[in-house]
Amino acid sequence: MDEAKSLERTLGPVAVALLTLSVLSPAASVFVTGADVVHQAGTGAALAFVVGGLLTLIFTFAQAELGSSFPFAGGDYATVGQVLGAQWGVVQFALDLLSTPVFIALTASGIALYLGGVVPGLPPIPTAIAALVLATAGAVINIRTGAVVTGIFLAIELGALALVTVLGFAEPARGLEVIVALPIRFADGVALPLTLGVAAGAVSAASWAVSGAGQAIYFGEELRDPARVGRLVVRITLLSLVAMILPMLALIVGGRDLPATLAAESPFAALIAQHASPALATAIGLGIAAAIFNAVMAAVICYGRWLWSSGRDAIWAAPVNRALVRLHPRFGSPWVASVLVGATAMAFTLLGLRALVLLAAANGIVNWALLNWAGLVGRRRGLTGQAGTYRAPLFPLTNVVSLIAATGLAVLTWQDADGRRGEVMLAVIMVAALLYHRFVLLRRAGGWQMVGPKTAG
Predict the structure, then answer these.
(1) Which residues, 6+ apart, have CB-to-CB distance to 366 below 8 Å?
(2) How far is Cα 65 from Cα 371, in angstroms, rounded to an integer?
């Protein structure tokens, strides 16, 4: 039976870093999610990315320690389940089940925004679905080949971010003080002060956009010396912070007509049009679209491993589990799981960009709370932080700060009507997951527990 098969350890740290950076995609985070944060928070968007980025770095320490001790393809749900118990692993899996297609659909939805300069009037949803079809086909290939392809696209992506940063700072229209002095947003051209609820939602969305380095853990079963994955997660987070915050600052500083720039469907495309020649603007737009496509393909590669792991852990009904653990006979990739991830993301593109960002932001708050709770429990029980694995600095301070920050963001987000709907939906999902564990999984003959890779002690 296919459960006996394992993923092959063929990746070094550079390949995993390239794949992970491609999945979290600084370009997609800035040009797609960042654009929505700009619409929410106006000039406060840059500050939201600074604050959200720093919070993400603090949050990530626990995730890195957990992943170093349990470098399983299941990622967060596997690490949480190993430390807090299977029921909380199922809760995290249910949250991932929502966030995974949301993340991929959100990323794919940005392609039409930046191809619009080349093909005006390009419909966003059909374009996103077409990109997902191509990306899913590419995700089935050998993972080492995938790492090379995504690495090439990643170079284009970082180049586009650098160009946008240079354009904004080369001819500044205002100083950096506008970002921190009195953040404002615009509604119908009228400047309004930023409320706490909106600011909290923007910080949550920005934090979620910057996060993603932990996706390196999904490749833990294909990484040689998997205990190194914790340090990789932290280094990728630091690199992402720099790559995302600088373009956000450049947008606010460099936008000539600030209300029009911030209100544009694509604020960054507006900034590029203001500062670059039509030919350069077209080239940058194509580079951004290519980068976003790369992120979509890398995400399907990554989350195909996650869904494959859920089949190995027998979370689903037996026929579904058997299908999910099938590996491609030639490429050794979890092809059924990858195709299902891509197909689900296609369905989620129908929700629209705004709904996807709100769901992602609320999910991020709960995810960080669970990971940092698991980090506290894991170290106290001696399950994490062992010799040879990554140890989170300043333990337990960073975990406590993370839990307080997540609680504060949840309370403030509740004050916003849209944020409240997202949190209610997540609460329902968590309760449903606990009930599924109690009344479905535990009632199976012999009970149920997470499996994990055979090589993982």
Answers:
(1) 95, 406, 410, 426, 430
(2) 10
Domain containing 139 equals 11-441
Q: Tell me what percent of the residues of the chain surpass a pLDDT of 90.
A: 31
In a domain, 429, yes or no: yes
pLDDT of residue 457: 37
Q: What is the pLDDT of residues 389-428, one digit of tens each?
A: 899 998 999 999 999 988 988 888 888 777 788 888 889 9
Can you name the residues that pair with 192 across neighbouring β-strands?
Answer: 185
The dihedral over CA atoms of 184, 116, 25, 186, expressed in degrees to the nearest 10, equals: 10
- What are 210-263's pLDDT values in tens digits? 888 888 998 888 888 888 899 999 999 999 999 999 999 999 999 888 888 888
Q: Up-side HSE of residue 445: CA atoms within 13 Å toward CB?
A: 1
The answer to whether 184 and 43 have CB atoms below 8 angstroms apart is yes
Per the domain annotation, does 106 fall within a domain? yes
How many other CB atoms are found less than 10 A from the CB of residue 427?
12
Judge residue 190's burial from the number of C-beta atoms within 10 Å of its C-beta, 0-12 exposed, 13-18 middle, 19 or more buried.
exposed
Within-domain flag for 262 = yes
CA distances from 57 to 148, 241, 317, 335 (A): 27, 8, 37, 33
Instruction: Indicate whether 34 belongs to any domain.
Output: yes
Closest CA to 219 of 80, 72, 332: 72
Q: For 332, left (φ over 0), alpha (ψ -120 to 50), or beta?
A: left
Amino acid 43: pLDDT: 87
Q: Can you give the pTM of this predicted structure?
A: 0.80
pLDDT at 406: 87
Domain count, the chain: 1
How does 282-293 read in b/e, with b if 16+ C-beta sit within 10 Å?
ebbbbbbbbbbb
> Which amino acid makes up residue 234?
V
The CATH number that applies at residue 45 is: 1.20.1740.10
